[in-house]
Design brief:
seven-stranded antiparallel beta sheet, alpha+beta, 26 strands, 14 helices
């Protein structure tokens, strides 16, 4: 689609009751990131209340109509997805605005391949819209869904803001309260990287400024049902619509001049006192009417006489005699909790196109197929407005692989019976969200069946997010999820996530050790794929524990396909003997780097900490060592000096002599690289001595003993932090 164009969803698909909107981007440097937000608007172009504003701290609607699904890795970057059940959207909501924002001085012009896609409930793409003119904007309205004559339509907007999330929210009736942020040293007015003050979204009802007429008209066949609520030109607003240098809101922005041919609506303000991109808004969130229940961080004191007393569990894990018994029990435990805890069931199925409605789950269902009936491990059914959505579930535990012929059978049964989906569930982790098995679909069939995959690690991740951070409806539901987590994490459950580096691991490791592994060896590519799955699982586990987004960083050039990218990484593995990955955790100072050196048998976890501007070098070094007072004595600290390596040493040696970190010749310090080293497990599995366990332990130790203390260094990040942070190979 082109900017300003619109289309009716009914013209694209026969089933658009539920859709998934995806916002994606990539970055050659790996530094870029953004957060999606969504606003439900009434016929006046405003939110009806705080509950109509969805962003990272408020990811789901109580009725299930809106669900922020979070980010998933893609071929060249990441995609942030939103599930919308359009049949459940309240009748007085006439527009749904889909946007994204950045903070910390980042601009959308720094990102590549900005794109919105919209798919139906089966995952079939319906439309796409690319933004190619982003420059200095810190927030963007990608598009909007709106009602017209009882039909939902989509409009490609592509309108930017220089005032970030707070400026966008203000336009649609969210009141924003300014707040100064001070550095750790207590001085100054607390300017952030972008030179703007932090702001907090506190509620609706901002006083609107006069409306300004739009400067262009929508080239689409019909006008928008209402204003997009933009900031007009002149002193009333500072909306950015086109290339840098053109006047805001001027006809030079685009032929459309904006998404509406009516008056431009929304509360605007003078940029002199308008709020800035709101890191605080994202951290604190809007008020919610219903309090959610989370589990306390510290467990209550046990009444047991000694440690040999084991608490009774709702889902006991006995010593199973067969993998089949594990699969049956794991399926029953999971599906029963999904049906009982609405937030959890909705969280796992929203991305698969399931509507927000009453859910029932079944196991060991017999379905006719040829001469003998087939029994899928489970069935999920969701009902809304008299319509049923059905998915068959095929489960594997204990590292057993999915079988293509078995999944194909369930796809055929689902197609004949008019079911919507088949869901595979195993310890393996899918790359780029793709299915793990190959199936054939009959293109002559009118009814489409979608194939989806879940990892047990993702199931545990979602349960942990709900009971530790986001909350559920009541204490009983929180307890059920806790019992589910305990079951999944038990050594006998067989539901441990990715636990095997594959058959190529040992020969590749031996080939590197004997220097006989040649570039182009397909086994090296298999190891690279397994490494990516492991890092993806590390992100799921870390994100669930922290309650923060954690994603692998993709430093991909535009147009690079995953196959060629992995082949290049495999060649580097053959030449250098190293597997490397980077992880971005929301709220962390910079990117976490993980490197497994197969030649030395060491795992290195590291992070670059930028040095504050304007401080004396010795003061900076002393402050860093004070902050790391409780860090391990074997932590390596290296001074970064304008593209070169500076002095280095362990904390044990540097604590009595901070001056040893200062470079000679008065060279300027740009930052410090903090690293921990750990012995690498050799086995391909997840046992105590295995490689996978050693990577998990290395990341946990570094994050818990080092990264958690870094926030005390300084609240402000210098502008150059974006260039120095997260580049373990720099210098």
């Amino acid at each position: 689609m082109t900017k300003g164009a619109n289309v009716g969803l009914a013209a694209l698909s026969e089933d658009t009751g539920a859709v998934v909107v995806g916002l994606s981007w990539s970055s050659a440097t790996g530094d870029g990131d953004a957060d999606v937000s969504l606003l439900l608007l009434d016929d006046g172009g405003k939110v009806r209340g705080d509950a109509d504003f969805y962003f990272y701290n408020r990811p789901a609607a109580e009725d299930g109509s809106v669900q922020l699904l979070g980010k998933v890795p893609t071929e060249n970057g990441s995609e942030d997805r939103i599930s919308l059940d359009l049949t459940a959207i309240p009748g007085d909501v006439v527009r749904i605005v889909v946007a994204a924002s950045q903070d910390g001085g980042a601009r959308f012009g720094d990102l590549d391949d900005l794109r919105l896609t919209l798919t139906d409930r089966s995952g079939e793409p319906l439309l796409g819209f690319s933004i190619t003119d982003a420059t200095v904007e810190t927030a963007f309205i990608f598009g909007e869904l709106y009602r017209r004559n009882e039909e939902w339509k989509f409009r490609a907007v592509g309108q930017g803001y220089e005032t970030g999330l707070a400026g966008l929210a203000t336009d649609f009736g969210i009141a924003v309260e300014e707040e100064d942020e001070h550095g750790a040293d207590g001085g100054g007015g607390g300017e952030d990287v972008g030179g703007t003050e932090a702001a907090e979204v506190v509620g609706v009802g901002a006083v609107p400024a006069p409306r300004v007429p739009a400067t262009g008209t929508d080239p689409a066949p019909e006008p928008a049902p209402g204003p997009v609520g933009g900031r007009g030109e002149g002193p009333v607003g500072d909306r950015v619509g086109g290339p840098a240098g053109s006047p805001s809101g001027s006809p030079a922005d685009s032929p459309s001049g904006g998404p509406s041919d009516g008056p431009s609506g929304g509360p605007s303000g003078d940029p002199a006192d308008g709020p800035a991109p709101a890191a605080a808004a994202r951290r604190r969130g809007t008020r919610t009417a219903k309090k959610k229940v989370t589990l306390p961080k510290a467990a209550k004191k046990s009444l047991a006489e000694n440690d040999s007393w084991k608490p009774a569990r709702l889902f006991p894990v006995p010593s199973y005699k067969s993998d089949r018994e594990r699969e049956v029990r794991a399926t029953s435990v999971l599906l029963s909790v999904m049906a009982e805890v609405p937030e959890f069931g909705r969280r796992l199925t929203a991305g698969f196109g399931a509507p927000a409605g009453r859910m029932q789950t079944f196991t060991e269902v017999s379905l006719p197929h040829g001469d003998s009936p087939k029994r899928p491990d489970g069935v999920i059914r969701t009902e809304r407005a008299g319509k049923l959505w059905t998915a068959l579930v095929e489960t594997k535990t204990n590292g057993n692989p999915l079988k293509s012929e078995q999944v194909q059978t369930y796809m055929d049964i689902a197609a004949r019976r008019g079911y919507e989906a088949v869901i595979t569930l195993s310890n393996d982790v899918a790359l780029e969200g793709s299915p793990l098995v190959t199936v054939k679909t009959d293109g002559r069939r009118k009814h489409k069946v979608s194939l989806w995959h879940l990892s047990w690690a993702e199931v545990a991740h979602q349960a942990q997010l709900l009971i530790r951070h986001e909350g559920v409806g009541n204490a009983a539901h929180a307890w059920l999820l806790q019992e589910l987590l305990h079951y999944l994490q038990h050594e006998n459950s067989g539901c441990h996530g990715f636990q095997n580096m594959g058959p190529a691991w040992v020969p590749v490791r031996n080939g590197i050790d004997t220097e006989t592994l040649c570039q182009g060896d397909p086994r090296a590519v298999e190891v690279v794929e397994s490494w990516e799955r492991l890092i993806r699982q590390v992100c799921l586990r870390l994100g669930g524990e922290l309650g923060q987004k954690a994603l692998p960083v993709q430093r991909a050039r535009r147009g690079t396909d995953p196959k060629s990218r992995r082949a290049e990484l495999a060649d580097r593995l053959c030449a250098e003997g190293k597997l490397s990955a980077e992880v971005r955790v929301d709220g962390a100072w910079s990117i976490l780097s993980v490197t497994a050196d197969l030649r030395t048998g060491k795992i290195r976890t590291s992070m670059d900490v930028p040095a504050p501007d304007g401080a004396y070098p010795l003061s900076v070094a002393k402050r860093l060592l004070r902050v790391l007072e409780e860090a391990p004595a074997d932590l390596h600290v290296e001074t970064l000096v304008d593209g070169a390596n500076g002095p280095r040493g362990t904390l044990e040696r540097l604590r009595p002599e901070p001056g040893d970190l200062l470079p000679g010749g008065g060279a300027a310090i740009t930052g410090f690289r903090l690293s921990l080293f750990k012995g690498m497990g050799s086995g391909r599995g997840g046992a105590e001595s295995g490689f996978i366990r050693s990577v998990d332990d290395a990341v946990d130790r570094f994050y818990g003993s080092v990264v958690t203390h870094l926030g005390q260094i300084e609240q402000r990040r210098p502008a150059r932090a974006r260039q120095t942070a997260g580049s373990p190979e720099a210098g």
